Automatic annotation (TrEMBL), chain A:
Keywords: CF(0), Hydrogen ion transport, Ion transport, Membrane, Mitochondrion, Mitochondrion inner membrane, Transport
Keyword Repeat in record: no
Organism for this UniProt entry: Atrichornis clamosus
Name listed for the protein in its UniProt record: ATP synthase subunit b
Family, per entry: Belongs to the eukaryotic ATPase B chain family.
Residue segments, region Disordered: 1-22
InterPro entries documented for this protein: ATP_synth_Bsub_B/MI25 (IPR008688), ATP_synth_F0_suB (IPR013837)
Subunit structure: F-type ATPases have 2 components, CF(1) - the catalytic core - and CF(0) - the membrane proton channel. CF(1) and CF(0) have multiple subunits.
UniProtKB/TrEMBL annotation, chain B:
The protein's name in its UniProt record: ATPK synthase
Pfam families noted in UniProt: WRW (PF10206)
UniProt-listed GO biological process terms: proton motive force-driven mitochondrial ATP synthesis
Annotated compartments: Mitochondrion membrane
Gene: Atp5j2_1
Amino acid sequence: VLHTTRPLHTTQQSLAPVPPLPEKGGEVRHGLIPEEFFQFLYPKTGVTGPYMLGTGLLLYFLSKEIYVINHETVAAACILAVIIYGIKKFGADVAAFADKLNEEKMATALAMKNEAIQTLQKAIEEEKKEQWRVEGRNYLFDAKRNNIAMLLEANYRERLLMVYNEVKRRLDYQVAMQNLMRQKEQNHMIQWVEKSVVQSITPQQQKESIAKCILDLKALSKSAHAAV
Amino acid sequence: GPLSERPLLEVRLGELHTWISTCHVSPQGLLGAVQKAWSSYCAKYIHMRRGGPSGISMLLAGYCLLSYGWNYQHLKRHRWRKYH
């Protein structure tokens, strides 16, 4: 349960980053006795002091049989010999192997960290680029505004054309109507006039006009004969 | 530094009495002291990059000595000579 009201990472002490392990720790001589003991005895007894102390203690324990020699002593001596031989012979190799394992772990962790850093850096660059792109928004808006203006203009002109066409159509209709009326009236009048004229021609007049036509034709034929 | 907070190795022999009187003798206190001693031993001799056999061998040697001490009364009976 994470109490979100608790402030995180406010104090100096935090679990990460973990400080790296030291290269070498406490010095130990002969694998058993810390160096501090030798340093402690050095001012009074010099370099050989602790060794003399060790020898003296060993002889004291042996002579007073505070340390009893029995079968376990032989076993311990053999085991110690084997252990020391093993350490002296294979110590360096085992250490190198362990170091290599450590190195691999560190390398993978470092690679992951570097990769994460690279990804984040790339993200930062992309973000900056996007921010730079944002600065061009004025051009974008201008282009859009131009587009819209053009659309409006085209629409307006289209409608203007439509209006013109419709008005012209109506006016043409009126003109056609008038022409038609006029034509009809004319035709009607002509027919009426013709009808009345034809009606007014009495049979008497018809005979007279036919006789006159025949006389004219005879005269014409005579003049034609004469011409030929 | 103050007497009660100094590590045991830096306390002089004359002040040992006062040092013992200042430490918290209680289950938690003792447990805390043991924990602190163990962690300081680990930090000094085991948690390092280029360590050797020293860290564990000292523990094993201490165990050998302790077990010899616990069995001393029994081992005393297997002495080679009666008078030293």
